């Protein structure tokens, strides 16, 4: 048995190699199964109403932002042994490009205050910029880090993280976006044919929560004592146990489920305020 060095690795893969150590992070994993028949109808109606290509990903991003709004204490980072709460609820959506071979993403600020259509519009504009290789901030910083000699990638990544979060320095002028990943990360693996997935917490982001969306599939569900077919979405959840515990996660999951199951009630009301 022998090994050969991988050539032409993506910039994201180079960065990932120098990001994680051996497993020792305080990550808790869980799964949420939620019926999405009502959410899919809402998506179709919003596409017609707004003209935007609204998807379940946008609905999930909005729903988790609303859940965080109910528990602002978990919208936090660990800084030098203490927890500091963010002022806004920002959702980072992963964006695949180069036929899925590479990853970047876009942070939608104040997602709890925006409509689903507004989130879709902003994410579309940012995604187009990423996929056409324009200078999106996260892309630029990732490419710059990937070009460093291997010995310096980990050092530079950790230095940027420490200066940004532990000392609250804005390094934007040096090509490092300030708090680029926000309150929660949402990534969709359903497009790759996966029904369930988990994503690790990304240490340089200090983001306490990640949702991984699988593909929607029909399942037999018991409703009022009857077995009926329903479209079900499975989400893998990873959260930082230093920032939240099972009780807080459970309350947020309850709120998230309410929004997904009754989008006309919660999202229409949310949109009408804006």
Determine the mean pLDDT: 87
Total DSSP helices: 8
The secondary-structure class comes to alpha+beta
Question: Could you name the ranges where pLDDT drops below 50 across 5 or more consecutive residues?
Answer: none
Could you give the distance between the termini? 61 Å
Q: Please provide the ordered H/E string of secondary-structure elements.
A: HEHHEEEEHHHEEEEHH
Largest sheet: 7 strands, mixed
Strand content: 15-25%
Roughly how much helix do the residues carry, as a percent range?
A: 25-40%
Rough outline? globular
User: Would you report the number of β strands?
Assistant: 9
Q: In angstroms, what is the radius of gyration?
A: 19 Å
Task: Tell me what the structure shows.
With 274 residues, the chain is of the alpha+beta class. Helices cover 38% and strands 23% of the residues. A hairpin with a 2-residue loop joins strand 2 and strand 3 (82-85). Helix 1 (11-17) packs across helix 5 (137-146), helix 3 (56-70) packs across helix 4 and helix 3 (56-70) packs across helix 7 (246-261). The N and C termini lie far apart (61 Å). 35% of the residues are buried. The model has no long low-confidence stretch (mean pLDDT 87).
């Amino acid at each position: 048995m022998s090994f050969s060095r991988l050539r032409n690795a993506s910039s994201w893969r180079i960065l990932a190699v120098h990001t994680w150590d051996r497993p020792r992070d305080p990550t808790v994993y869980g799964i949420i199964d939620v019926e999405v028949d009502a959410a899919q109808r809402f998506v179709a109606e919003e596409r017609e109403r707004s003209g935007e290509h609204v998807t379940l990903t946008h609905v999930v991003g909005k729903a988790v932002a609303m859940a965080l709004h109910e528990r602002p204490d978990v919208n936090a980072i660990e800084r030098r042994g203490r927890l500091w709460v963010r002022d806004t609820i920002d959702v980072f959506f992963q964006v695949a490009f180069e036929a899925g071979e590479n990853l970047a993403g876009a942070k939608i600020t104040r997602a709890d205050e925006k409509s689903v259509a507004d989130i879709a519009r902003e994410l579309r504009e940012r995604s187009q910029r990423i996929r056409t290789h324009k200078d999106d901030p996260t892309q630029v910083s990732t490419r710059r880090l990937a070009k460093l000699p291997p010995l310096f990638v980990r050092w530079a990544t950790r230095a940027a993280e420490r200066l940004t979060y532990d000392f609250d320095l804005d390094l934007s002028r040096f090509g490092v976006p300030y708090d680029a990943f926000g309150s929660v990360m949402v990534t969709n693996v359903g497009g790759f044919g996966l029904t369930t997935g988990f994503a690790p917490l990304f240490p340089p982001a200090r983001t306490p929560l990640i949702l991984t969306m699988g593909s929607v599939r029909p399942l037999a569900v018991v409703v009022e004592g009857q077995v009926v077919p329903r479209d079900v979405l499975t989400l893998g959840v990873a959260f930082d146990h230093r920032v939240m515990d099972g009780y807080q996660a459970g309350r947020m999951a309850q709120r998230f489920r309410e929004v997904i199951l009754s989008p006309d009630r919660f999202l229409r009301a949310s949109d009408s305020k804006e």
